[in-house]
Amino acid sequence: MLENPTPTRAEIADIANAIFDGADALLLTSETAIGNYPVKSVEIMSKTAQEAEKWFEDLRHDKPKLENIATKDIPQAIAKSCWDLSKCIGAKAIITSTASGGTARRISRFRPSAAIIATTPEEKTFHRLSIVWGVTPIVIPQVNTTDVMIHVAAERAKASGFVRTGDVVIVTSGVPCGVVGTTNMIKVHEVE
């Protein structure tokens, strides 16, 4: 769409195939930098990506592999369990407290239908997670207890419009709080 306001079939197919391949983000370069229709290019890319995502679940080739993951890696097992649990109970969101972003990225790999809300005290982690599929990062202050973390995370998720009072969410984090690489806890929580 450098010079034309209408995309070619190849451009639409490239966008759709990137979604079907599980891309976390899409990037336009020359279309927005030097093209004649930068806003239209972004609008069409967004609309195409949203349409492709509607078909994504039916076309997933890795779904059987993801469902059959057996691992002794605790953080990976927790991520899969969050995905399984969110499907079973119809959770509105999966809230993860993460210092490095690893937990949110692992959960994102499963492409849950529940929103993934990653709370972190780290600005760097916030920025890294902003392009990960399905993850909405939120900066929160460093907390020292799991109860405070759950309360603060649920309140921020509610204030951001992702959940409402009475919604069921899944919360995952590491205990003790704030230590990188300790994801070892899942809790089903009703938002107050």
Quick synopsis:
With 192 residues, the protein is of the alpha/beta class. The chain contains eight helices and five strands, in the order αααααβαβαβαββ. The longest helix has 22 residues, at 38-59.
Map the helices and strands:
Blueprint: H1 9-20, H2 30-33, H3 38-59, H4 63-67, H5 74-89, E1 93-97, H6 102-108, E2 115-120, H7 123-129, E3 135-139, H8 146-159, E4 168-174, E5 183-190
Parallel strand pairs: 1-2, 1-4, 2-3
Antiparallel strand pairs: 4-5
Percentage of β-strand residues? 15-25%
**Average pLDDT:** 87
Helix content: 40-55%
Number of strands: 5
Strand order of the largest sheet: 3-2-1-4-5
Poorly predicted ranges (pLDDT <50, ≥5 residues)? none
Question: What is the molecular shape?
Answer: elongated
Please report the number of helical segments: 8
- Within CATH, the superfamily of the largest domain carries the name Pyruvate kinase, C-terminal domain
Corresponding CATH architecture of the largest domain: 3-Layer(aba) Sandwich
Quickly give the structural class.
alpha/beta
**How large, in whole angstroms, is the Cα Rg?**
18 Å
Distance between the termini: 48 Å
CATH topology of the largest domain: Pyruvate Kinase, Chain: A, domain 1
The top-level CATH class of the largest domain is Alpha Beta
User: How is the biggest beta sheet arranged?
Assistant: 5 strands, mixed
* Structural domains: how many: 2
